[in-house]
């Protein structure tokens, strides 16, 4: 039987996932990280994107986080995010609309907008769409 570790994914509103997993992969600010049981302690800042989880038995599950912090202890991984959701619960139409809205805002140089906010919204929408696409790819 493969070794497992406890994973908790928590958003500002609620706990999204809590359970035993074999592997966790996430996009950190300085690159992708992969965590196996008994990993050395680590604290990293996450970019908006997906968190990929390998469950006992080999099944994979995908989550979207809006960024946040991941704390790794030898047998416990905790992901703290402002917003988090299971990839299967994401609304693709809403993500596409948010992407289009952010792209329009960035192209409209005459408008009085917050470019940093528009770029952050674009990054979040793109990350949600990637999580949805990866989920679909792995369901085939």
Account of the 3D structure:
- With 140 residues, the chain is of the alpha+beta class.
- It folds into two domains: 5-87, Sandwich (ATP Synthase, domain 1); 89-139, Up-down Bundle (Single alpha-helices involved in coiled-coils or other helix-helix interfaces), CATH 1.20.5.
- The protein is built from two helices and nine strands.
- A hairpin with a 2-residue loop joins strand 7 (68-73) and strand 8.
- The chain is elongated.
- The two termini are 26 Å apart.
- The mean pLDDT is 85.
Keywords summarizing the entry:
single chain; alpha+beta; ATP Synthase, domain 1; 2 domains; 9-stranded mixed sheet; 2 helices
Output the radius of gyration. 16 Å
Structural class: alpha+beta
Q: Could you say what the CATH topology of the largest domain is called?
A: ATP Synthase, domain 1
Low-confidence stretches: none
Mean pLDDT: 85
The global form is: elongated
In CATH, the architecture of the largest domain is: Sandwich
Q: Could you say how many structural domains there are in total?
A: 2
CATH-defined superfamily of the largest domain = F0F1 ATP synthase delta/epsilon subunit, N-terminal
Q: Beta-sheet strand percentage?
A: 35-45%
Largest sheet: 9 strands, mixed
Distance between the termini: 26 Å
Give the topology string: H per helix, E per strand. EEEEEEEEEHH
CATH class of the largest domain: Mainly Beta
As an assembly, this protein is single chain
**Number of DSSP helices?**
2
What portion of residues is helical? 25-40%
- The total of beta strands comes to 9
């Amino acid at each position: 039987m493969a070794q497992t570790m406890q994973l908790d994914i928590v958003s500002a509103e609620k706990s999204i996932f809590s359970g035993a997993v074999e592997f966790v992969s996430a996009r950190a600010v300085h690159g992708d990280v992969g965590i196996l049981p008994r990993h050395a302690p680590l604290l990293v800042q996450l970019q908006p994107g997906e968190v990929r989880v390998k469950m006992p038995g080999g099944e994979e599950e995908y989550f979207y986080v809006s960024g946040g912090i991941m704390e790794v202890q030898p047998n416990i991984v905790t992901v703290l995010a402002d917003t988090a959701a299971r990839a299967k619960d994401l609304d693709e139409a809403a993500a596409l609309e948010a992407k289009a809205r952010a792209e329009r805002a960035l192209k409209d140089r005459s408008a009085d907008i917050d470019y940093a906010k528009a770029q952050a919204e674009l990054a979040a929408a793109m990350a949600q769409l990637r999580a949805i696409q990866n989920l679909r790819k792995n369901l085939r």
